[in-house]
Structure to design on (92 residues):
């Protein structure tokens, strides 16, 4: 009788959500599609208006007809401690 509840759980209880899912799918499939009240029969090819497409911003033009690209910033070096030739932390 010790394995009965495990078999009962797998064979009966876990089948209830599967049965409910199958019922919902059956119910949705048998329901006929509703006709729209404002159906004009144009096939969905007509648009509500003509709007111009929004173009993304263009990068600035470079070359002989425009300003040159800005210079790169100057490099900054941080002063650190100098390593002696016999220093154990010196990389080889």
């Amino acid at each position: 009788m010790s394995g009965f509840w495990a078999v009962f759980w797998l064979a009966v209880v876990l089948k209830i959500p599967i049965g409910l899912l199958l019922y919902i799918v059956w119910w949705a499939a048998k329901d006929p599609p509703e006709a729209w009240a404002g159906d004009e029969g144009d096939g969905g090819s007509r648009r509500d208006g003509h709007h111009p497409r929004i173009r993304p911003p263009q990068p600035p033009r470079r070359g002989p007809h425009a300003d040159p690209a800005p210079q790169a910033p100057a490099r900054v070096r941080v002063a650190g401690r100098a390593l002696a030739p016999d220093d154990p932390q010196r990389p080889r």
Q: What stands out?
A: Residues 15-30 form the longest helix (16 residues). The mean pLDDT is 75. Helices lie at 4-13, 15-30. Residues 1-30 form one domain.
